[in-house]
Amino acid sequence: MGDLDPDAKSDPLFSFNPSGRVIYIKSFSKIFLPGLRIAAVVLPSLMNSNFLRYKFSSDFNSSALSQGALEIYLKSGMFTSHLKKIKEVYHTKMQTLVEACDSLLPAHTHFSKPTSGFYLSISLPEHVTAKQIVHMLNEQHIYVDDASRFFLPEYKRDTLLRLSISQVNTNTIKRGIEQLAQCITLIDDRKNHPIPNNLFLL
């Protein structure tokens, strides 16, 4: 998702005179159309013939219509215009999310501060699990991801949440973080101030 990076100096490794040692691969699904399963690749010339042979044998059903439509879209300049627009949209969304986390999340909660892209990660207090938060928020129709599936079993983290802004309206981000903060505080308070065994609530 480097196309969404607001820092124009963040060029791919391929731009630094790779001398035939770097392959540049670019996808269009995240920044243009999820259903468009087409990527572009720039290869060292030495690899071209082998790559084309293996690509043809493993994937000879690539849609010519989709490829042709994408080529027209790129050459017309519409892709450049689209990219500029979504870069601004996602930069604004991410700024809103980072500011909401900074001002609303309780102490002992840490989070990444990306300047672009779709995702932000939140590290919960050690005795608050991601599964607890996911369950509580799902009941309120707020959906976050338990990020444990992104780790190998031996490196699994039970206190990590992953938020995505790709399908969220900017004006709902703060409200969502407010609800998340309330859930963290509620679970945190229960852990730190458990109800005594001899106390009965009527």
TrEMBL record:
Residue ranges of every copy of the Aminotransferase class I/classII large domain listed in the record: 10-180
GO biological process: alpha-amino acid metabolic process
Gene Ontology molecular functions: DNA binding; pyridoxal phosphate binding; transaminase activity
The keyword Transferase appears for this protein: yes
Swiss-Prot/TrEMBL cofactor(s): pyridoxal 5'-phosphate
UniProt keywords, alphabetically: Aminotransferase, DNA-binding, Pyridoxal phosphate, Transferase
Top-level taxon in the UniProt lineage: Bacteria
InterPro entries in UniProt: Aminotransferase_I/II_large, Class-I_PLP-dep_aminotransf, PyrdxlP-dep_Trfase, PyrdxlP-dep_Trfase_major, PyrdxlP-dep_Trfase_small
Transmembrane stretches, start-end: none
Protein name, UniProt field: DNA-binding transcriptional MocR family regulator
Organism: Priestia aryabhattai
